[in-house]
Design a protein that fits this description.
Layout lengths: L1 E11 L2 E12 L3 E5 L6 H8 L7 E5 L5 E4 L11 H12 L5 H6 L15 H15 L3 E5 L7 H16 L3 E5 L9 E4 L8 H9 L2
Parallel strand pairs: 3-7, 3-8, 5-6, 6-7
Antiparallel strand pairs: 1-2, 1-4
Helix pairs in contact: 2-4
The chain binds adenosine-5'-triphosphate (ATP).
Adenosine-5'-triphosphate binds next to helix 1.
Length: 204
């Protein structure tokens, strides 16, 4: 298993954001995506997850191998913790949700409605979902927002286990997660946004 991006360009709201993004990750690797606010970390992850098309270039393998965790937790508010995980496990064909409950310290909260969880507990449940997808590539957008130190540790442990099992993890984050990984600053891939001005002028 490897994950490869070649000469990728992506846009947001019709405006070019990144261009010329190329890298390859091998099984077991984690890559931290860095760069200032607005540089395009979320845009890149959304493109990798298949939520928006690439403007140019290729991503291999495709979105059916990606588990994406966005800024929002994406929980079903009226289902319990256990029911939320069971829902996603059924979608992805996973039999056993217990390892996911244990990994993110959710066992005692299993019967609580997602609506009634604290922000950090919601985030833990959102991340536990990754474990029932069975997908080899995790694309995570600021995954530790709202997490306390102990929960950041649970997250780091889950990432390490995923990578030991041959998985690949991409993490967009501004903070130090205590995870040993290479970092890629997306600033070097900032798109030349002059092109949109030329476009406008041509039609005025
Ligand atoms: N829905 C949208 N429509 C138009 N432009 C958008 C939209 N969402 C984001 N953008 C713009 O796209 C660019 C890239 O945003 P993106 O969210 O990918 O950056 P980011 O690196 O993840 O930022 P941050 O570190 O603040 O989370 C920014 O200039 C942003 O203002």
């Amino acid at each position: 298993m490897s994950f490869s991006i070649s000469n990728l360009a992506c846009a947001r709201g019709g405006i070019p954001v990144l261009e010329g993004v190329s890298f390859t990750l091998e099984a077991g690797q984690t890559l931290l995506l860095r760069g200032p606010n607005g540089i395009g970390k979320t845009t890149l992850l959304r493109t990798i997850a298949g939520l928006q098309p690439a403007a140019h270039g290729s991503i291999t393998p495709g979105a059916d191998q990606i588990a994406y965790a966005a800024h929002a937790d994406g929980l079903k508010a009226t289902l319990t913790v256990k029911e939320n995980l069971r829902f996603w496990a059924d979608v992805f064909g996973c039999d056993d949700i217990e390892p996911a409950l244990v990994a993110f310290n959710l066992t005692e909260l299993r019967t609580r409605l997602a609506h009634n969880l604290s922000a950090g507990q919601k985030r833990r449940l959102g991340l536990a979902r990754l474990l029932v997808t069975g997908r080899p590539i995790w694309a995570l957008d600021e995954p530790t927002v709202s997490l306390d130190q102990e929960s950041v540790g649970l997250f780091a442990t889950a990432v390490a286990a995923h990578c030991r099992a041959g998985g690949i993890t991409l993490i967009a984050t501004h903070i130090d997660l205590g995870i040993e990984a290479e970092a890629l600053d997306l600033t070097q891939f900032r798109a030349d946004r002059q092109s949109e001005d030329h476009f406008d002028e041509a039609f005025l």
